[in-house]
């Protein structure tokens, strides 16, 4: 028996919204320690890793008797979640050898209880992860700032070059019709912690990435006030959105290698 | 949940596996060859000591100098049977001619025609029933054409006219090398009538027949006459319309002397002069009998009765192998020819009696085939050329010989300076040269071809025949032989050929066997498809030389027949100037009432619709009425066609097109009647070829009148024909629906549910095939009676059940007898189209079979669901997903980006050598790419996909390939909205397999985490097999996986053996990389699956007990 009661359906809604475009069908792996979701996009360039820890306060109740895997069409799941109010409490429930996943939405004042079942999919795929390493550089910045940078730069070109150095971080784009650059300096002086830009630098990094994917990742902006970018030369970038009281959502994106010619 | 996943071992269409039963005898090509030798040995023993000429005889055609490199390999079978020379005073020469052409030579004394200057001479090649080769020089025939005589022309004016024209033509010549004084030989006053239009009861007019010295003078004479010509003191300058000035000289000759293509010729005793080494002129050809004859002294036998027989033509099929360099298509000036294999068969026999292979460097012996090894390439080429002359084949065949093998050999010989090589023709000193030509027709599109002159030997390239007559997915020899013979062959890449050549005599032997097979297959295919017989019959029916059928379009055949008929009635054909005109509407289509009909549907057809309309209404050039003519005639003498044109009735003047058609159709009836009586299989083939040729010819007459860039288009005829056709279909519908009603005593109201051009589909409402047939026959008879003779509506078949999808798209079970069905008939459905993947065709086909034959729509739905599920789970064989398109232009020339063009460009970047070239058909699959990417970005080479385990874009195949065809056939059966939901949203779509590619940006960094083999949950520590929940059933899981492994191993073993069988050797590695072969893809895939499965088993650890 698996049962997880989340206090805020809006969190789950936002997670699924941010994933469903790049990742059509995915397996939720549920164990006593929590729920994880790991999937690679169809072109094998981006990977997402979602972790919702069972011991965090976001879950009012959490129970998982044995490890189970729930294959879900995220498009369908998003439609179901749209039926829930933002403040509803959502419960996910499945049997030990499940065929269906049940969603129960309780409105705040318990006047209305709705229940939806969806058929599960059986998705046979290899479980791929990117091993944790020490990154040369970790940039922390407001998530809306990152979203704005990506959307602005994508007007001009397909790929962004992220250049991390002592003073801060530069985002540069060059396209057929023009080029653009945005410099962010470390801002420790700002009062609110979430508005700060900090750069932890061991080694400078300069690396290009496809903007199309970064823009897709920024759909998760509303999940968190801040975003962490972890970079090492010639390895995938990690874009991490912490989820308060739950865990985090991470995206990995392969670096763009310049074509030889 | 497990029940959803079907065991993956049951993949692949079993129909594709031709022979993988272990029980049946391995019939490999090598054993076939060996068997041939055995049979021959027995035969020669049985026929006792049949004194074979064992030495190279001195007789003509079979001699080679002792110094020749070919001499050590001399084989008495090579030469033609030698008979004592005929006695011109006693022996008639009877032979079947196969080709004729003209050349310009000097006149010979005693022969008719001009006695001075260059004269055109026809040379005709043929074979006697005894297999002797014959060449005739036919003298005295001169080219001519007509112009209408000026008014008040008197016979004595002929001389002036001739002199004036002669003067102009001579002056017009740039240089008069041959010092011709008489370009125009004669001008005669004759009475003829133009074929075009009706000219009243006394239509004959005076014409001038202008005879010129040789064919090349026709064009300038015509030009001068058309642009303006005057006869001094008699006629002022005026332009003359010319008649029959655009007829090939050979056709002119054949029409005037009643020679047909491939017919039998008889040259009576005492009418010819034999050429011999002592005669003057001496023989110029390799033929055993060479003679001179006058053009009016031979007998040409029409192809009737005894003269339908076929002489034992020698057909040489050959194939060459070149040592290509890696990544480059062989070029004749750099890459050597390393092997040439030859097979010679006598027409009518089953097996080739000469089988050999010329190899560069040594080669181990091959049972059943002679091996001729040469250490020097130039020697080999020279010897091969000598071999061709000794064997003296009448027909050369092979696969793509005209555009590849022959030009390559000629160019290679030139590069190696083998000066005697191009002497391949029957004319002793004629050198074969290569010319380029483009050929364009509506039927074939534009094609670039090479033209090589090899006089006396017909080049009968199988590839060209197939491209003309059959629409195929792939024209590679491998695919073609699989399609027609269900026989696979190895496909060895160019680069591997070089490796084999550079190996030892065993590897070269291997190559030689491969090469021999490539020479054998065209013969097998020619026999199976009866190409030679059918083309010969077509030549006989239409009266054109055999090679014209391959090198010329459809029109020449009709022109030949038209001229023959016109000659009988003193009609002449105007030389038409090519100009484009307006288009006219085609056949009529009654809007289909779509649906799935579970009751019999009768089909009524107009047999030979267009020809019979032309006959019934006397539509012809000669009966066409101009408005001015019409005013002079009474209303009962002509008819108005539905398109508003006027033609006289046959009682006034019978048209010649209806006559030609009448002859063709009655000849066809006779042939069909004979066919029924005939028992001899070879003669049956001939007759069947004949009736087919007659049918095609009859139908092409209509096309000829509508061909606007043709020799003699006549839109009045063609548009009247289609207008009548439309009217008749409409009338038929009315008659059926008015007569077969409940009011008139029938059980149901009949309904015409569909009609197209020459057929209507009728729902009589009855429940059994027998009743439907009864009514169909009755209706056909009743309606036929309302139309003029010979238009006939025939009841042909009943479809039951019948699935009508749309215009020109339907399928049904075909009944011609009430008790059992004949076949499943599909029109316009994806089963036959070439622009989608085989999965679609196979799936639609099996669904239709279930719906129509099994009458099990439920089963069909289940099958479709299962296939969709297989697709989502990556269980479909990749060969099923390959789409092929022809690369006709380079990327820049295409307006939009196209998948196959983009792929070809990408492949060129990866490896320029193996990338597809212009004109190749490019195979590709659509792979999963970045979301939102266009299909052309996602096309990929199937082999690359296999090697790198790249995931397929299942969504694309579902939405763009399967969806529409499936909905089309299922919507009429299970309802419009339901079909979509049932097929594409059901439970079967919930199981998917995601393939992990070897390439892709993240793959270099990602690490695989183990999941439980039992329940797929992630495992905490790697290298264990199952999670703790599944631990108690671990043995069960292990067993399941081992069974799976065994199944894969067995499958791999079977596929491997299949390929070994195909290559004809069980103890050699497999080299084949045929992209057309489903086995190849399966073998690759199962190899990969096996490795993966093995890894899974290893995770259970070493078994300990």
Automatic annotation (TrEMBL), chain A:
One of its GO terms (biological process) is mismatch repair. It comes from the Eukaryota. InterPro entries: DNA_clamp_sf, Pr_cel_nuc_antig, Pr_cel_nuc_antig_C, Pr_cel_nuc_antig_N. GO terms for molecular function: DNA binding; DNA polymerase processivity factor activity. Pfam families: PCNA_C, PCNA_N. Residues 1-125 form the Proliferating cell nuclear antigen PCNA N-terminal domain. This is DNA sliding clamp PCNA. It comes from Patiria miniata (Bat star).
From TrEMBL, chain B:
The keyword Hydrolase applies. Residues 545-973 form the DNA-directed DNA polymerase family B multifunctional domain. Residues 240-480 form the DNA-directed DNA polymerase family B exonuclease domain. Its EC number is 2.7.7.7. It holds the Pfam family zf-C4pol. Keywords: 4Fe-4S, DNA replication, DNA-binding, DNA-directed DNA polymerase, Exonuclease, Hydrolase, Iron, Iron-sulfur, Metal-binding, Nuclease, Nucleotidyltransferase, Nucleus, Transferase, Zinc, Zinc-finger. One of its GO terms (molecular function) is zinc ion binding. Transmembrane segments: none annotated. NCBIfam families: pol2. This is DNA polymerase.
